[in-house]
Amino acid sequence: MRKNFVVLNGVIAIILLIITQSCAPKSGQQSNAGMEKATTPEVTKAICVLTPTDGSHVTGTVTFTKVDGGVQVVADVKGLAPGKHGFHVHEYGDISSPDGKSTGGHFNPENVNHGGPDAAVRHVGDLGNIEVGADSTGHYERVDKMIMLNGPHSVIGRAIIVHSGEDDLTSQPTGAAGSRVAEGVIGIAKP
Ligand code: CU
Ligand code: ZN
Fold first, then answer.
1. CA 162, CA 59: separation in Å to the nearest integer?
2. Out of 90, 144, 158, 167, which one is annotated catalytic?
3. In Å, how far from its chain's centre is CA 96?
């Protein structure tokens, strides 16, 4: 009788163990934070398709490719007046307002002054100017050391704005580049 009782207790203990094990969270499902860390692949290429703001006809593309020494930025635009046009990465990838203002100011995670792309002090988003020719098209190429595709300075999900005027590279906090004529959100591209 006593022996049977011990065996029964053992069986109950095993059943309880099975129940608690099957209810416990499986490793790898413990938290979203753990999941994000474990599965985020490195971004090596991104693209921004530029669409006109209200009253503008400016279109274009900007690509970002990780290369030795930084990120290569290549921009092609059309529909702009000849001359220099400021363009920057702006803080928010929100292009819902017709004037481009919902993208916020220049992407500036270090909270420093505006500057030219080669200045020692500049916003991460300061890319300078695109030069547009008589045919109203412009091409821009630069390997940038501050634009990142990963980490806290990543530009993924932020916006590009092209301006009506020239960025003077010194006026604070925007370079006095005028209104916003084209905008787009920077998204992850196929490598
Ligand atoms: Cu801007
Ligand atoms: Zn700036």
1. 10
2. 90
3. 17
With CA atoms as reference, report the closest residue to 130 among 175, 171, 92.
Answer: 175
Q: Enumerate the H helices of 30-135 as residue ranges.
A: 32-39
What 3-state class would DSSP assign to 34?
helix
Residue 70 backbone class (left: φ over 0; alpha: ψ -120 to 50; beta: rest): left
Distance (angstroms) between ligand 2 centre and the Cα of 11 equals 70
Q: Is 90 an annotated catalytic residue? A: yes
In the set 85, 158, 163, 167, the catalytic residue is 163
- Residue 40 is predicted with a pLDDT of 74
Note the pLDDT of residue 31: 61
| Residue 106 designated active-site | yes
Residue 174 CA, ligand 2 centroid: distance in Å: 5
Residues of the chain with pLDDT under 50: 1, 6-8, 11-28
| 180: annotated active-site residue | yes
Q: What is the pTM of this model?
A: 0.80
pLDDT at 26: 47
